[in-house]
């Protein structure tokens, strides 16, 4: 099992053993991101800036996990929540 350098809330010792993790919740949403595209000319002249603003959809996925941990020194058990955010198209 993987060891984490988390501090035990009971004795203060660093180093906890992971007993397990489980997925608590998953949220999926789409966010509109504004972009202002810039088109450059073929020759070395100044660039052409378009006056249009485009909205691009961006998918965001949030996963919330609950970790079960145990202290190596005093064998105290506790849980912590961790959120993982993934952004993509």
H/I helix tally: 0
| Main sheet characteristics | 4 strands, antiparallel
The H-and-E topology, N to C, reads as EEEEEE
Shape annotation? elongated
- The SS-based structural class is mainly beta
Task: Provide the spatial order of strands within the biggest beta sheet.
Answer: 1-2-5-6
Number of domains: 1
**How much helix, percentage-wise, in residues?**
under 10%
Compute the average pLDDT: 79
Quaternary organisation: single chain
Strand content: over 45%
Question: How far apart are the first and last residues' alpha carbons, in Å?
Answer: 34 Å
For the CA atoms, what is the radius of gyration? 23 Å
Q: Segments where pLDDT lies below 50 for 5+ residues?
A: none
Q: What is the tally of beta strands?
A: 6
